[in-house]
């Protein structure tokens, strides 16, 4: 029983990432009708926001400290981050320590700006073109974005630790008399994701803006006829979707040290998630994201991998193929989306 | 000739002449000159031109004619390579059975993958093929290379070891892939004054195969089957309501293009008896898409041009480094020289992929018809200069 | 027995009864019109005939064989061709190529791999397609891109493509919708000529009374998913129920 719950928990963090990326993909697809192959790159850029912030906070100056000497007896050069000298050593250290959550503050405006530029500068011109062209141009953009990141940050994964207080493992089952050791940061990530998903849904459900967007998702032409400037709203929706992907990435940095190709790895799986959930269905995307994350976690157990070696690597694809063959519209897909 | 009309015959002859004389054409600069870095007449590079040309021709039969955008064709290339290397390991270094098995295996896999993927169209199809390709990559990279059952040799890649069975191998035969005794690596170097040209057996095998499959693709383009495929791209509703079943048509196109990819993979292994999982990754699939689009989707010659273009510039760009850049910009004042090198630096050497990505976007945005359309536009512009513009609505025959 | 027998066909979409117990018999070599106000279920009925929709109840027999559960291309191969409300043609292909495709479909069936033969050397198909283009009065447009033609020409090409298959039943879905008066009259003349010269049954769904009364020999009036009356044009014109349900509405 404990083992079972532990596997479910283990699937939650990846599932959260899938769900958030798939949510953004679905929002963009539903509102703009564009399949965004660069969405994974946005997730990756989010993760690198965390890297950037922690690098910026660690910018230091060197002073020669005559009181300290190295083993040869020469005076030692001591590096002090500017933050520490500005805010005092204690405050400074904890700012650096909390660089990942702080990076959220940077990520939101940066990602929204990137989303805005992408939509206005590129995607806008592809609304009336074939889906194949949309796929191709965003695919090209994904390559460009990931190569730029590779150029500035190198090809190796960059370790980005969470704040010290949130490191380590907590026994989440203690209250129920179960033994469930689980990394604290993953709990944080899961709750964070739920918060974002809730915020997006609430936004769509309870604001006028969200109502118009939902109406636009259902029938774009009619809403356009009502004299509502749907294009501007869609631009903002794209920026929000970009921010969601970025936030998914920035908080994921401590779980998976960011590298330049993580975007594509997650994108392929998130597409599978979207297809399984049902293209154009937001709840479907979230549900399928968590489901497949948990499924992957079960397939990664020693029992599964010894029975069927490598099952953890292909389980998601297998499920996707089976779902598409038996329920072509996905689990919660609407009729008429992307058919004909 | 050969059942082709005049225009197609000319095109075929042009391709034949270009491929057969490639060792001359691609080495226009004397071997010792500064421009020699722009030569491309090396056996392995010429082989790559031709092999990727075959791959792209096959991809174009699917994407160019039916409009189904597959993101998983590299899987078939990889399967072809693995099949060929297994023939080398178990039976013989002769390339004929290796290439034959490569084509057959790729064909079998494409029947299965195509059958499933083609149940959906549009972006679903693209995503399904992408998923299949990633699954094949995962299978080849780790799943099928465990000690109990090692089919792909994982990260190292599948290769021939001295302890392998090689049932039909004799000592008189070369210890490398060969065609009935003619080693694929045997090269004849011709020195003419300052120029040097290499004629490589492997290249010529690939070139002959290219001509054959290019001819076959012309025949397919001009056949009733080709017409049906273009009809599918144009209007599937009308297709069904004309009593034609789109699915077997697209499946046949998928399998043919998968077999082309397998052939390319087999040839790749025949040139260098090695097969690695990275050949199956989505980036490799993306590359063949780019080649086809850059050259001109749905045109006959486009994919070959695109493959040559990309492989040539990949080679050139990867070779350029900062010191070469400094040489180029040496005529500029110092500050400006350094600035130019700084600007260009991200795009060269290891930055080739960045250049490729930008190129990809530019082509899709500004020149959806690729190089062929670009050429046609320039040709028309020259023709129409001075003449009154003739805006006839006649169809452009695909060429 | 008619060539097309529709028995007790019903179709629901969620809570909406789109068709309820439709009975219809189309006699061979006649022009049969199905009319009715918007939302009467005309298009739903048509989609049930060609395999796009499967009715919940009832049966649809064509020439003694059931069409239910068959896919559109199978039904077409049985001898039913359909003309759409907005012309469905192969826009990227030339007019000649458009016309050759149904000829191939007639000769080779729903799938036959002919990947090596040269299209233009398939003498029988080329000749047949050319003859049909002459019949349709568009031989001079053969090299034109189909998408670049006028709407009237597209319509004519589509009808020609359907005829090239030598169907026994031609279904037309509001063939003159959105057309100018002159084009409408041309289309009426063309359809008249077709029904006079060929062994063909025509079923037509139409809104335009002018078209219906100049073509049809038999008319079924559909209202709220059920047939109201079926009779010849003269009687329909004077039928009180029809005036109330349909003609009255158009007059208002």
From TrEMBL, chain A:
Biological source species: Shimia sagamensis
InterPro entries in the record: ABC_transp_permease (IPR001851), BCAA_transport_permease (IPR052157)
UniProt KW keywords: Amino-acid transport, Cell membrane, Membrane, Transmembrane, Transmembrane helix, Transport
Family: Belongs to the binding-protein-dependent transport system permease family. LivHM subfamily.
Superkingdom to which the source organism belongs: Bacteria
Membrane topology type: Multi-pass membrane protein
Any single Pfam family the record assigns to this protein: BPD_transp_2
Transmembrane segments: 16-35, 42-61, 95-114, 187-213, 234-255, 267-295, 307-325
This protein's record includes keyword Transport: yes
Protein name, entry field: Amino acid/amide ABC transporter membrane protein 1, HAAT family
Localisation: Cell membrane
TrEMBL record, chain B:
The keyword Lipid metabolism is assigned to this record: no
Keyword Transmembrane tagged: yes
Keyword line: Cell membrane, Membrane, Transmembrane, Transmembrane helix
Subcellular location: Cell membrane
Residue stretches spanning the membrane: 49-69, 74-92, 98-116, 123-144, 201-221, 251-270, 290-313, 325-348, 354-372
UniProt cross-references to InterPro entries, sorted A to Z: ABC_transp_permease, LivM-like
Topology relative to the membrane: Multi-pass membrane protein
Main localization, broad class: membrane
Protein name: Amino acid/amide ABC transporter membrane protein 2, HAAT family
Automatic annotation (TrEMBL), chain C:
SUPFAM superfamilies associated with the record: P-loop containing nucleoside triphosphate hydrolases
Transmembrane segments: none
UniProt name for this protein: Amino acid/amide ABC transporter ATP-binding protein 1, HAAT family
Gene3D superfamilies, per the entry: P-loop containing nucleotide triphosphate hydrolases
Origin superkingdom: Bacteria
Gene Ontology molecular functions: ATP binding
Key words of the record: ATP-binding, Nucleotide-binding, Transport
Pfam family, one: ABC_tran
Keyword Nucleotide-binding: yes
Entry-linked InterPro entries: AAA+_ATPase, ABC_AA/LPS_Transport, ABC_transporter-like_ATP-bd, P-loop_NTPase
Source organism (scientific name): Shimia sagamensis
Residue ranges occupied by any ABC transporter domain in the UniProt entry: 4-249
CDD domains registered for this protein in UniProt: ABC_Mj1267_LivG_branched (cd03219)
């Amino acid at each position: 029983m404990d083992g079972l719950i532990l596997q479910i928990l283990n699937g939650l963090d990846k599932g959260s990432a899938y769900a958030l990326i798939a949510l953004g993909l679905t929002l963009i697809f539903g509102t703009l009708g564009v399949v965004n192959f660069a969405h994974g790159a946005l997730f990756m850029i989010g993760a690198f926001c965390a890297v950037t912030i922690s690098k910026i906070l660690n910018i230091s100056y060197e002073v020669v400290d005559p009181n300290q000497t190295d083993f040869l007896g020469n005076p030692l050069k001591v590096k002090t981050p500017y933050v520490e000298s500005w805010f005092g050593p204690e405050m400074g250290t904890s700012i650096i320590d909390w660089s990942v959550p702080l990076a959220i503050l940077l990520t939101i405006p940066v990602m929204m700006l990137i989303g805005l530029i992408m939509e206005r500068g590129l995607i806008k011109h592809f609304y009336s073109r074939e889906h194949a062209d949309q796929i191709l141009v965003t695919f090209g953009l994904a390559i460009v974005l990931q190569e730029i990141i590779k150029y500035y940050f190198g090809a190796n994964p960059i370790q980005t630790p969470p704040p010290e207080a949130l490191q380590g493992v907590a026994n989440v089952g203690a209250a129920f008399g179960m033994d469930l050791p689980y990394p604290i940061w993953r709990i944080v990530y899961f709750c964070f994701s739920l918060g974002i998903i809730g915020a997006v849904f609430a936004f769509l459900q309870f604001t006028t803006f969200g109502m118009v967007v939902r109406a636009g998702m259902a029938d774009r032409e009619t809403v356009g006829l009502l004299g509502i400037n749907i294009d501007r709203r869609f631009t903002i929706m794209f920026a929000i979707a970009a921010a969601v992907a970025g936030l998914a990435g920035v908080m994921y940095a401590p779980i998976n040290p960011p590298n330049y190709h993580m975007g594509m790895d997650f994108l392929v799986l998130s597409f599978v998630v979207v297809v399984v959930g049902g293209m154009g269905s937001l709840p479907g995307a979230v549900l399928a994201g968590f489901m497949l994350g948990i499924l992957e976690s079960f397939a990664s157990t020693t029992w599964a991998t010894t029975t069927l070696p490598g099952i953890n690597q292909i389980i998601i694809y297998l499920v996707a193929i089976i779902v598409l063959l038996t329920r072509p519209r996905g689990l919660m897909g609407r009729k008429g989306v992307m058919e004909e | 000739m050969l059942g082709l009309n005049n225009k197609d015959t000319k095109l075929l002859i042009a391709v034949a002449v270009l491929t057969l004389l490639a060792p001359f054409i691609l080495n226009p600069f004397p071997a010792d000159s500064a421009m020699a870095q722009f030569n491309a007449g090396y056996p392995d590079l010429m082989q790559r031109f031709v092999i990727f040309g075959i791959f792209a021709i096959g991809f174009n039969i699917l994407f160019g004619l039916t409009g189904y955008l597959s993101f998983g064709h590299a899987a078939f290339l990889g399967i072809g390579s693995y099949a060929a290397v297994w023939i080398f390991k178990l039976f013989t270094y002769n390339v004929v059975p290796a290439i034959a098995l490569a084509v057959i295996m790729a064909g079998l896999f494409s029947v299965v993958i195509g059958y499933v993927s083609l149940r959906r169209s549009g972006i679903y199809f693209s995503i399904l093929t992408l998923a299949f390709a990633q699954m094949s990559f995962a299978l080849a990279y780790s799943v099928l290379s465990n000690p109990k059952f090692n089919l792909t040799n994982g990260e190292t890649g599948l290769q021939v070891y001295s302890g392998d069975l090689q049932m039909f191998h004799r000592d008189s035969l070369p210890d490398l892939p060969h065609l009935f005794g003619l080693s694929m690596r045997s090269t004849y170097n011709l020195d003419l004054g300052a120029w040097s040209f290499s004629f490589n057996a492997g290249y010529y095998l690939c070139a002959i195969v290219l001509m054959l499959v290019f001819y076959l693709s012309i025949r397919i383009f001009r056949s009733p089957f080709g017409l049906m495929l273009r009809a599918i791209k144009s209007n599937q509703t009308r297709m069904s309501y004309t009593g034609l079943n789109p699915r077997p048509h697209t499946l046949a196109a998928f399998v043919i293009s998968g077999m082309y990819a397998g052939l390319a993979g087999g040839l790749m292994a025949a040139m260098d008896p090695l097969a690695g999982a990275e050949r199956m990754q989505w980036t490799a699939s993306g590359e063949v898409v780019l080649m086809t689009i850059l050259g001109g989707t749905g045109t006959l010659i486009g994919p070959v041009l695109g493959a040559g273009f990309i492989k040539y510039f990949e080679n050139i760009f990867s070779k350029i480094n900062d010191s070469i850049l400094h040489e180029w910009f040496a005529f500029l004042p110092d500050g400006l020289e350094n600035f130019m090198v700084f600007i260009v630096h991200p795009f060269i050497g290891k930055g080739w992929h960045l250049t490729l990505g930008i190129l990809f976007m530019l082509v899709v945005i500004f020149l959806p018809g690729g190089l062929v359309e670009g050429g046609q536009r320039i040709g028309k512009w020259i023709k129409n200069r001075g003449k009154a513009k003739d805006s006839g609505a006649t169809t452009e025959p695909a060429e | 027995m008619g060539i097309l027998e529709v028995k007790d066909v019903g179709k629901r979409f969620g809570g909406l009864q789109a068709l309820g117990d439709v009975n219809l018999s189309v006699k061979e070599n006649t022009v049969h019109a199905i009319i009715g106000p918007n939302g009467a279920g005309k298009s739903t009925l048509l989609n049930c005939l060609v395999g796009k929709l499967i009715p919940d109840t009832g049966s649809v027999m064509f020439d003694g064989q059931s069409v239910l559960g068959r896919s559109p291309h199978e039904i077409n191969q049985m001898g039913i061709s359909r003309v759409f409300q907005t012309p469905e043609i192969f826009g990227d292909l030339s007019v000649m190529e458009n016309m050759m495709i149904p000829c191939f479909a007639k000769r080779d069936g729903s799938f036959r791999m002919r990947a090596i033969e040269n299209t233009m050397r398939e003498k029988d198909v080329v000749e047949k397609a050319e003859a049909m283009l002459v019949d349709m009065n568009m031989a001079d447009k053969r090299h034109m891109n189909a998408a670049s033609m006028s709407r009237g020409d597209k319509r004519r090409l589509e009808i020609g493509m359907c005829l090239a298959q030598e169907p026994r039943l031609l279904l037309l879905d509001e063939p003159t919708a959105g057309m100018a008066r002159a084009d409408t009259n041309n289309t009426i003349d063309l359809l008249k000529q077709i029904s006079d010269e060929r062994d063909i049954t025509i079923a037509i769904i139409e809104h335009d009374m002018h078209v219906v009364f100049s073509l049809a020999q038999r008319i079924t009036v559909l209202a709220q998913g059920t047939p109201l009356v079926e009779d010849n044009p003269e009687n329909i014109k004077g039928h009180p129920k029809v005036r109330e349900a349909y003609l009255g509405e158009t007059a208002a």
